[in-house]
TrEMBL record:
Phylogenetic placement of the source organism: Bacteria, Bacillati, Bacillota, Bacilli, Bacillales
Protein name: Rhamnulokinase family protein
Domain Carbohydrate kinase FGGY C-terminal residue range list: 255-446
Alphabetized GO MF terms: transferase activity
Superkingdom: Bacteria
Taxonomic source organism: Paenibacillus filicis
Amino acid sequence: MSTILAYDLGASSGRALLGRLTDRSIVTEELHRFPNDPVQVGDRLQWDILRLYHEIKQGLIKTKHRGIELQSLGIDSWAVDFGLLAANGELLANPYHYRDRHTEGVMERVFAEEIGREELFARTGIQFLPFNTAFQLAAMKRAGSPLLREADRFLMIPDLLRYFLTGEKLSEFSNATTTQLYNPLQGAWDAELLARLGLPAAWFGQVVQPGTAAGSLLRSVSGELGVDAIPVIAVAEHDTGSAVAAVPTRERSFAYLSCGTWSLMGTEVDVPVLGERALAYNFTNEGGVGGTFRLLKNIMGLWIVQELKREWERQGLDYSFPQLVRLADQAPAFSAWIDPDDPLFLAAGDMRVRVRDSCSRTGQKPPEQPGEVVRCVLESLALKYRYVLELTESLSGRQFGGLHMVGGGIQNELLCQWSANAIGKPVWAGPAEGSAIGNLAVQWIAQGVFADIWEARRTIRDSFPVRTYEPQNSTAWAEAYDRFKTLTGLG
Ligand code: LFR
């Protein structure tokens, strides 16, 4: 029996999931769960990276107390954020949060001053999001950040945590692609792009594929924790890469929605799609497992509802997530919509006011009560899913019979049902722990337990329940979709 550990770090919480493989069936157990609260210090929103490392150690201590012998461990997290190391190997500062406002307006300045949109897309195949690593570094450069003077090495968040554990400074491919500094056609960091942005190529080290053995715990770490020198695998360290690895599909051509703080929708392709339309639709080609790419688009996701919830909490209104969903279900249907991807909703803050303003601006009656506000957001998400699914079909030249939904967001049954209604096709929901399970799967591929991603997906399909949501009220949702597009200016 093989027992391994997946650390999956999300933008609001992290977890360590134990995976056991018995009789070609995967059994998981949540060993450790912890909050991941970013910290605002002065003008900067930062990740508490040492706390995350501490929690990783707590997970290992729990395996020791339980007498569990691990064959390996892997770490995945959200993308684009990074740490900079000094020449002596020390971390120079807490990594910035991608929602920090220091990147505001920087993307446009980079297009004007360093590299045009078309060329940047042709070189990287990555969608334009203002917080991409390239723009974060450009923002720091423009602000004269002293960190850039001292930096010797660049590591993404999971690279950095893996480095703390093993001492190895390796860049993992799936996450490296999200920087918008990696050239998938060259299969390397884009040296010319780095030069144009004034970033030293020497900061960017060896890139390894998901499933690479990446050392084992340093003696100092295993000694401190009283555990063995456990092997560490570089999994698909971008959480979305891990989530897509866990999609329990039988078909090679499938559509997925990784549903959490973000909603990531797209399909898996063998080569990046770099044409004019991909650029116009602002689709991305993120590196995946086994040489694949994720042709997808970011949709703002449940972030808006998470922020609404936080804000109500601050006002002493302690709604649980299921409560909010229930209230949304009881609110009147099809009353008002937003485009969830309006940049207005990107930064943390007063979402209720922003949702209401957005509705007023588009001539709709702003939602009032919490249930109405949440209904407006969830319906808008479901309708936006249809829009992006249509773009995915048109761009990939594929037709999808339904949509695989994975990730914690599938616990929101109302959203799954409305998604099926909006797209007019079945939704297959599961597994909820997509990223952590994909992380486990790639470790087992690295160990030779699974031959490839297809054997892994087959085993995942046999091990976890997948719930089917058939579309309902198709006519009403189709009419709603047309009005939604007009109101939000999508067509
Ligand atoms: C999802 C995710 C997205 C990425 C966003 C920011 O957790 O990794 O794929 O665009 O977070 O890093």
